[in-house]
Write a structure and sequence with these properties.
Elements lengths: L5 E4 L2 E4 L5 H17 L17 E5 L3 E5 L2 E5 L14 H10 L8 E7 L5 E4 L11 E7 L2 E5 L9 E5 L4 E4 L8 E6 L12 E7 L7
The structure holds succinic acid and fe (ii) ion.
Length: 209
């Protein structure tokens, strides 16, 4: 793991090449096994029910889901009704290397992007514990990622997140708006069939102090 951090803005750090290729391959295999137990499903927007362009799944004690009833965390897969698989130790170790002082993450959201998928500008704010960082890892095709400030209309910066790169939103950057403008199809050989997987680790409940 390479801990070279590039500060994008206060509290928003980018770790290019954080996972080397063997680690990316190990994580890919673990995620593909998780997706067999917790099959990808397509979230829908609260109220309108408009489908997301990404497919999602989760691992960890809690998983993030979204449908007409709203955004929330729950302990079971919305379609199979089974508990989410555990977060792989490799991923917990990668999280701890980036956020050594953070309480253990409870949720790992798995976002699956096909070449046409994107993610509108949003804040991660469905967690009770906003003091803990959000850490994400990218596998597969490169994404054009956008990050802004604490207001939707604040200026934004765009940069590429390639396979193996990590990101952290912490402290004053914890609620920074962010999104994915597009995926560069065919830019990586990691995933069978192409596309991109993003793994986002979050603490959800307040950590006891
Ligand atoms: C997200 O914000 O949920 C996903 C970010 C990413 O795909 O890099
Ligand atoms: Fe997010």
């Amino acid at each position: 793991m390479s801990l070279v951090a590039v500060s994008i803005m206060p509290g928003v750090d980018y770790f290019p090449g954080f996972l080397d290729r063997p680690l990316q391959e190990a994580l890919r295999d673990e995620v593909l096994a998780i997706l067999k137990l917790a099959p990808p499903f397509r979230p829908r927007m609260p109220r309108t029910g408009k489908p997301f362009s990404v497919m999602t799944s989760n691992c960890g004690p809690l998983g993030w889901v979204s449908d007409e009833a709203g955004y929330r965390y729950q302990s079971k897969h919305p379609e199979t009704g089974r508990p989410w698989p555990e977060i792989p130790p490799t991923l917990l170790a990668a999280f701890a290397a980036i956020a050594p002082d953070a309480p253990p993450p409870e949720a790992c959201l798995i976002n699956l992007y096909d070449p046409a998928a994107r993610m509108g500008l949003h804040q991660d704010r469905d967690e009770e514990e906003l003091a803990a960082p959000v850490v994400s890892f990218s596998l597969g095709d490169t994404a054009l990622f956008r990050v802004g400030g604490l207001q939707r209309n604040a200026p934004t910066r765009s940069f590429r997140l390639a396979s193996g790169d990590a990101m952290s939103l912490a402290g004053v950057g914890r609620l920074a708006f962010h999104g994915v403008d597009r995926i560069m199809a065919g830019s990586s050989t990691l995933l069978p069939g192409g596309g991109r997987i993003n793994l986002t680790l979050r603490r959800v409940t307040k950590a006891s102090t």
